[in-house]
Amino acid sequence: MGDKWSMLVIGALAASDARCSDLDTTIPASSRRMLTVTLKRLQRSGLVDRTAYAEVPPRVEYSLTGLGASLLSAIDPLAAWSAEHRTEIRRHQDAFTSSG
Q: Which of the ends of the chain has fewer CB neighbours closer than 10 A, N or C?
């Protein structure tokens, strides 16, 4: 649950239920495979629900469970901290890369 992709998916699903293609657009840096693996891991952990609709073409939506929604209270402060220190972190990363 502490990996980058899980946090991004949970954050994206906080706004509303979404199809995999919606998440793919919301989180463009992820590959489809990474997104699928992450969704399955979150579903297995009880943080995300997967609902398949018997339609043509088939439609599948993902949503946060109550447990997943409760994780938002822990993620929000981390996201705020990251946004506040983004420039400083980037500066350290660039300096590290330049020195190596």
A: C
